[in-house]
């Protein structure tokens, strides 16, 4: 049975854990934090030395920029020097790639390998290796820019474009142009946080490459910071749209702008105190542009898309919406039945009646399989029961009620079929009970979880189960927990070593491993960013480990055999101690861009 396991794992976040009892005078929270940060800075310098021992320049550059980003909060001068070192190495990497590529001359017919770009396919060529190295370098450039942008967005933007000024090869210049758009907008969005004037100017400059959905995202961001700048940028966007032929505009992006403009205008009328980006007449102009696209005789739209656009247009131009519905009411221009008729006014008929029938009888009575209904009802009851786990840490909760919650949670976990969920759930519950002072019961629950843990892990899931199990033991017996973690790292080293041999055997193009080292930095720093960022908001185990024993946590990272994995583990620990805390929304935005967040979240 599946259930929201995060409710149980959240228990680990609710209760701070401590290591062994101390005989000295206990430190205040401020003193404890300062001492931890001092130790972390020393740990960062140790990690920097490890980075210097890495073989691949791309890895050294990416890891150095990430370390510099963390150091910035405590030592801006040395952090800037680190960034400078990474930037210098990066420019050297680009210059070497550019020179080698120019030496090959223009690409010939023989150079066009149909297998190029496909991992583990085709025989590597000198030219192909240089092209791959350059693609990796562009990813590293994005990593550096996003790391700098945490502190100096304008400097990050300047680096992003100045760093490629050394490139003269025409093929490389094309790659840069095609890959830069999304990151450019993300950097401009960062600048908007602190300098709306410059962000507006950069946004207007980027319009020269054409209007895109990123410009709508920037409009939203500017409006939350400075409505006047948003209006200024909005006028530039509208001016571009009006001067561009409708057959060269994107209907979906124009519809997105119309949706923003309509919602923004409506909100401005209900007492927000902010002027709208567009006036009513300008909103109608945007709607008219979209209507002209859909009604253009030379274009053929899917009926569903056309009628969806009609619904958006109808709010400001009812007559134009009616024209679209008349054109697409029965069939689209390809003659395909749209599933709508004029009698329904373009509204789609009901797709089903009542709940989906899952009995397999073909009945359309709207009934639901009784067994499925019972399971769904039980899951909802379990979900509500698991919510009660959060109350275990409240001092005013009577012992009888605590016992009832614990008993009910164990009952739910007993019905759970997923081994992974059961191990994590039992470990989380044991951690909560240990915090309440009942180490004996917590130990019994951990023994129950231990029976489910695979002694000789065969895959990553087995390792993750062991990790969850060890996390639960941090509250019950920290020494035992770190023994479990040590064993996990030992098994990980064995599995990784075997994986590397296989990868090197099949990876003739060195897509994943080059010079005997994982190309972590080759993925644009996304792997580094994802692991280290997620540690602060999702991987509660690391924070719990640090609270239990920072020295043992540091020692654990040194147990990884491979340098790149060792550095990655250290970065996760350092990010947890030195990095700024971010929300789920900020994490999504930094990892995937502002479009990863629903507009209503951005507005809030």
Q: What would your notes on this structure say?
A:
This protein is mainly alpha-helical and 604 residues long. Helices cover 66% and strands 1% of the residues. A hairpin with a 2-residue loop joins β1 (513-514) and β2 (517-518).
Compact summary:
The protein is mainly alpha-helical and 604 residues long. It contains 26 helices and 2 strands.
Class derived from helix and strand content = mainly alpha
- Please estimate the helix content: 55-70%
Radius of gyration, CA atoms, in whole angstroms: 29 Å
Percentage of β-strand residues: under 5%
Distance between the termini: 35 Å
Helix and strand pattern: HHHHHHHHHHHHHHHHHHHHEEHHHHHH
Shape estimate:
globular
Q: How would the blueprint of this fold be written?
A:
Blueprint: H1 6-14, H2 29-52, H3 57-71, H4 76-104, H5 126-149, H6 153-162, H7 170-192, H8 196-206, H9 213-225, H10 227-242, H11 251-268, H12 280-295, H13 303-314, H14 318-328, H15 370-387, H16 399-415, H17 419-435, H18 439-450, H19 460-476, H20 478-506, E1 513-514, E2 517-518, H21 526-537, H22 540-548, H23 550-557, H24 563-578, H25 584-592, H26 599-603
Antiparallel strand pairs: 1-2
Highlighted features:
single chain; mainly alpha; 2 strands; globular
């Amino acid at each position: 049975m599946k259930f929201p396991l995060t409710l149980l794992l959240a228990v680990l976040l609710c209760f701070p854990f401590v290591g062994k009892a101390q005989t000295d005078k206990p430190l205040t929270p401020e003193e404890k934090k300062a001492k931890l940060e001092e130790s972390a800075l020393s740990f960062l310098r140790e990690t920097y030395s490890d980075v210097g021992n890495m073989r691949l320049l791309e890895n050294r550059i990416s890891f150095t920029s990430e370390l510099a980003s963390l150091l910035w909060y405590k030592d801006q001068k040395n952090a800037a020097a680190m960034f400078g070192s990474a930037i210098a190495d990066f420019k050297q990497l680009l210059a070497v790639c550019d020179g080698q590529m120019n030496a090959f001359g223009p690409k010939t017919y023989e150079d066009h390998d149909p297998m190029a770009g496909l991992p583990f396919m085709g025989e590597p060529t000198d030219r192909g290796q240089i092209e791959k190295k350059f693609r990796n370098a562009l990813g590293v450039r994005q990593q550096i820019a996003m790391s700098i942008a945490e502190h100096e967005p304008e400097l990050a933007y300047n680096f992003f474009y100045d760093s490629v000024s050394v490139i003269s090869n025409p093929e490389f210049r094309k790659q840069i142009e095609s890959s830069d758009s999304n990151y450019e907008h993300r950097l401009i969005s960062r600048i908007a946080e602190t300098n709306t004037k410059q962000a507006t100017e950069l946004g207007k400059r980027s319009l020269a490459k054409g209007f895109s959905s990123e410009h709508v995202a920037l409009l939203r961001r500017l409006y939350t910071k400075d409505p006047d700048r948003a209006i200024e940028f909005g006028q530039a966007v509208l001016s571009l749209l009006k001067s561009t032929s409708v057959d060269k505009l994107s209907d979906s992006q124009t519809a997105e702008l119309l949706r923003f403009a309509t919602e923004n205008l409506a909100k401005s009328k209900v007492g927000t105190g902010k002027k709208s980006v567009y006036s009513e007449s300008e909103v109608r102009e945007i709607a008219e542009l979209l209507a002209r696209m859909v009604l253009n005789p030379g274009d053929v739209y899917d009926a569903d898309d056309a009628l969806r656009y009609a619904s958006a247009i109808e709010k400001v131009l009812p007559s134009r919406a009616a024209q679209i519905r008349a054109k697409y009411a029965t069939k689209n221009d390809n003659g395909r039945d749209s599933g709508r008729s004029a009698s329904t006014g373009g509204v789609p008929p009901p797709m089903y009646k009542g709940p989906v029938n899952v009995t397999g009888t073909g009945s359309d009575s709207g009934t639901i399989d009784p067994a499925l209904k019972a399971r769904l009802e039980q899951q909802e009851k379990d979900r509500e029961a698991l919510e009660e786990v959060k109350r275990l840490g409240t001092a005013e909760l009577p012992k009888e009620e605590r016992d009832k919650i614990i008993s009910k949670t164990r009952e739910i976990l007993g019905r759970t079929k997923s081994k992974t969920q059961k191990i994590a759930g039992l470990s989380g519950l044991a951690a909560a009970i240990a915090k309440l002072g009942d180490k004996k019961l917590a130990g019994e629950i951990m023994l129950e979880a231990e029976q489910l843990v695979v002694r000789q892990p065969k895959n990553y899931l087995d390792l993750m189960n062991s990790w969850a199990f060890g996390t639960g033991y941090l509250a019950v017996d920290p020494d035992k927990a770190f023994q479990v973690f040590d064993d996990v790292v030992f098994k990980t080293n064995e599995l990784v070593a075997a994986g590397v041999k296989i990868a090197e055997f099949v990876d003739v193009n060195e897509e994943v491993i080059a010079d005997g080292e994982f190309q972590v930095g080759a993925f644009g720093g996304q792997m580094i960013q994802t692991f280290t960022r997620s540690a602060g908001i999702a991987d509660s185990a690391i924070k719990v480990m640090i609270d239990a024993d920072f020295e043992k946590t540091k020692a654990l990272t040194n147990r990884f055999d491979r340098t790149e994995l060792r550095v990655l583990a250290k970065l996760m620990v350092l990010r947890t101690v030195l990095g700024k805390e971010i929300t789920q929304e900020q994490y999504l935005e930094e990892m995937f861009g502002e479009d990863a967040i629903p507009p209503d979240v951005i507005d809030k």
